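README, section 4: Worked example with a bound small molecule

Sections 1 through 3 covered apo chains. Here we extend the same pipeline to holo records, where the ligand is supplied as SMILES alongside the sequence. The molecule in this example is magnesium ion. Nothing else about the input changes; the structure line simply encodes the ligand pose together with the chain.
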Amino acid sequence: MRRFCKIEIKYHSINTTKIVLTIKSGLTHLGQYVQLMGRALTQPDRWRMFFKQYVTEMFQLGYNSIGIVLIISFFIGAVICLQIKLNIQSPWMPRMVVGYTTREIMLLEFSSSIMCLILAGKVGSNIASEIGTMRITQQIDALDIMGVNSANYLILPKIAGLMTIMPILVTFSVCAGILGSYATTLMGTTTVPELDEGFRYQFNQWFFWCGMIKAIVYAFIITSVSAYKGYTVEGGSVEVGKASTDAVVLSSILILFSDIFLTSMLT
Amino acid sequence: MIQIQHLYKSFEDREVLKDINATFKDGEINLIIGQSGSGKTVLMKNIVGLLTPTSGSILYDDRDFVSLSKKEKIKLRREMGMIFQSAALFDSLSVLENVMFPLNMFSYDCYEDRKKRALDCLARVNLVGAENKFPGEISGGMQKRVAIARAIVLEPKYLFCDEPNSGLDPKTSIVIDELISGITHEDNITTIVNTHDMNSVMGIGENITFICEGRAEWQGSNKEIMDASNQKLDDFIFSSDILRQAKELHDQQKGIKV
Ligand SMILES: Nc1ncnc2c1ncn2[C@@H]1O[C@H](COP(=O)(O)OP(=O)(O)OP(=O)(O)O)[C@@H](O)[C@H]1O
Ligand SMILES: [Mg+2]
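The generated complex, written as structure tokens:
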């Protein structure tokens, strides 16, 4: 019996040291992240170079994601509409419930949070592997030697670029979702007037702005976290791969956490 | 002139550089030689400020780099050019854009002037006609030459080269060496080159610092190296048969003269 207790205690103590170590490394990362952001979020050395990079990044991170955003949103909009029609609507429910629910789901959660989660996978891994490769091939050292603020030059245009383009992507996503639900009328499950009524029912403009605010916050999380992961890579291609996976996982988790905060704060 | 005084650098508990003292002269090729893993790259990274020394000082014409403020460091860095072991070109930019990059960042000249200056530098390293290619499309030797052009485009006072001819054939190595040597003498630059290539040592080494296991063991010129009575240096330099024979011949001739 006594031996059993001893084992119990030992098992317990290993667990606590592990937890302490995890907390410690978490805090170290947080400190490094804040420091890096402090260097990145300053006035650019040359505005001309910044704007050039800014436009390039908007194109690369945003414009190239429009296709995937439109396709996913269109189909999800259609599927939500179908599901609600088939599973929720019944003779006791008002007619407009299909359109109303589809609109609220797209506006409140799908187009902002879920879309950003999907984009975290696409954009986050892209940023982390690009900056990580620059780190291991000494391109970042080369920038530093020239006296360029490498964090500012590389990271700020990405943050600014995605924060600009993300609200536009979210708007596109809402529109595509609504188009998708209209498309289901072609299958005969719903009718256009039915949907119209739902879409117009008690429209609250603030919900749209909530989506925009969320999109901007998530854009910052995705770019800054992925850039941090890439910027601090040490080693070779294996580490770059790991950094890009970590970037996606970490930014997704942070998006989900901040979704809870933002939702309770904004609505 | 760059002076290193009592420089120590350790990683966690591992001491890589131990009490390095060296002087690197203006308008000369200063070589740092030593075995792989002896600490040459670490020393150079300390000199240019990519690593912070554990203790000691690095004097750039009497300005101690370690104790400079952030702003002064950035100002001093604009007087430096560096060529990395892996060339480190920006792979999203073309050759011309790579060379123009420092100008775009720091020069207030108009576009035409900047472009002309970059093209002049490319001509200096014999790369006319390659300006629109991307780093992935040119050979290793050409990448090194682009890196040289990028490093000299702002007319630096100090030039650093980490193994400029690693991975190149002997003939291309000599071309690169001669380029660096020519630029150093024409523009009166303080050049520091890391190398373990004996051709460079004998060819362009005007002021050689030999590092062994993190210590500066010997300093002198390529003319003195044959007569240096340092066992570790001899073991390193004359490790190949050809050079050992050359050394024996040299010693014999010296014996005859004396
Ligand atoms: N960031 C680091 N962390 C820990 N140890 C390091 C680090 N960088 C270098 N070292 C160690 O310092 C020693 C010297 O490395 P360095 O890269 O300076 O060698 P080198 O003389 O340049 O060799 P080579 O000729 O192969 O390039 C090596 O043993 C290496 O393990
Ligand atoms: Mg090295």
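What to look for in the output: The pocket of adenosine-5'-triphosphate (ligand 1) is lined by residues B 11, 16, 34, 36-42, 196 (CB under 6 Å). The radius of gyration of chain A is 23 Å.

Section 5 describes how to batch many such records.
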